[in-house]
């Protein structure tokens, strides 16, 4: 069975201020198979006062059933925002969560916006994903 992949995240308000406190939940969509039966669970990660956090998740790309994690952000004030579903890769190094969050489907493909360095750093690329490279600088 695959070991956990560390995800990092940074959350900001529309004015650029960090989201202070609260939690991010990651709910696995269904059971999966990876040398054992992986039971769906919801995992929570605290949001630090600077809007950042980390979480270790089972890399569901290793599974056989096309599962995903649904992400929900709950602020300290209790408001909830659903970010969408992500597929967690297998990675020995931390993966920034924003590189996994799809925009909207385009021609049946998932769309991700990454920097060139983030794209080059991906361990594997999904043939059902359209990768858009964001200009830096």
TrEMBL record:
Which Pfam families does the protein's record reference?
Phage_tail_C (PF24243)
**Residues of the Minor tail protein gp31 C-terminal domain:** 109-134
Superkingdom of origin: Bacteria
What is the protein name given in its UniProt record? Minor tail protein gp31 C-terminal domain-containing protein
Q: Which organism is it from?
A: Paenirhodobacter populi
